Amino acid sequence: xDLSYYMPTKVLMSENVIEKNKSIFGIYGxxxxxxxxxxSARACGALDDVINALKSYNIxxxxxxxxxxxxxxxxxxxxxxxxxENNCDFIIAIGGGSPMDAAKAIAALAKNDVLKDDVFxxxxxxxxxxxxxxxxxxxxGSEVTQYSILTDDKNKxxxxxxxxxxxxxxxxxxxxxxxxxGKATTVNTALDALCxxxxxxxxxxxxxxxxxxxxxxxxxxxxxxxxxxxxDLSIEDREKLLYASTLAGISIAHTSxxxxxxxxxxxxxxxxxxxxRANGLVLVEYLRMVNDIYPSKIDELNKLLNVxxxxxxxxxISNLLGEKENITLDEIKxxxxxxxxxxNISNSIIDIKEEDIVRMYSNVFLK
Length: 367
Fold this sequence. Notes:
By secondary structure, this protein is of the alpha/beta class. It has two domains: 10-177, Rossmann fold; 182-365, Dehydroquinate synthase-like - alpha domain (Dehydroquinate synthase-like, alpha domain), CATH 1.20.1090. The protein is built from 15 helices and eight strands. The protein has helices at 17-20, 40-44, 46-56, 73-85, 97-109, 183-201, 208-222, 225-230, 235-255, 259-271, 275-293, 295-305, 310-321, 329-339, 354-365, and strands at residues 10-13, 31-36, 60-64, 90-95, 131-135, 147-152, 157-162, 170-173. The strands form two sheets. It has a six-stranded parallel sheet, with helices on both faces. Strands 6-7 form a two-stranded antiparallel sheet. Helix 7 packs antiparallel against helix 9 and helix 14 crosses helix 15 (354-365). The chain is globular, with a radius of gyration of 20 Å. The model has no long low-confidence stretch (mean pLDDT 96).
């Protein structure tokens, strides 16, 4: 039996979860740094709920709202300097993947003297500030993983720092914070979560325990395909997607991702294509490659997705994503070369060569 499981994050999910569990904030100290983007945390009400909880326990707070999509190393160092200057005891992250990933790096850099050249070297981190995460999108799963994914300008890609210290202490989940999301963000994050779950399911590192989470996440997200297409989502639908996103995050915490995410990174770095959209664009082409060697795995996946074939899945995802970007063959070759440098390729259950990546990109963007 191949079994392993480690998940130190305490997950609490309910309506009005912050108000119901506000005593948690008093556990970690008297001064907090709130890490978020410029608008979404305010727009959805999560920031106000956090501030009210902090005030009720006389906890001082500093708002660092400079996190941009695909956060940079520089913004994480800036956040860490503010945490240190204000003697912050813990970090609160509010937002999607970008604020949560940045918050992990900020929490670590506030406790470790790490040179910028070593920022992606996980062995340099030996301590970290406690972290409470409140996701406001249903896609990244960062609230339950040990990964911080940042823009890596030196290598012209996005790169992950992976360290067991990076698991948040607490994840507070409330679907009401997703009610104001637009269709594109909702679809893109749902597809990101779907890719997490499918990539985990098709990873060499897949285990009995991780598969429990990935399979359930796949089924839940697939059950929302029609509602996502019509963009007719109740709070219960939002809750289902949020739950699925967290399950998918737990699964990749154990297996990591595979070549789908690897191929998505250049699309985001060089063409500014949203991370979840980038992954969704290339997903089915990878599944076709797997089907050539492991058709039984794809048959099982199709049943989880409630589709008859990969062509049907391709039509569903294409309808959700709309018209594809124009990518040239020269760009594809450069993206493929860039992708081959990423270690996640080795997690794939099939052997991936550079020409395979060129072919997959070409099938997506040149047909």
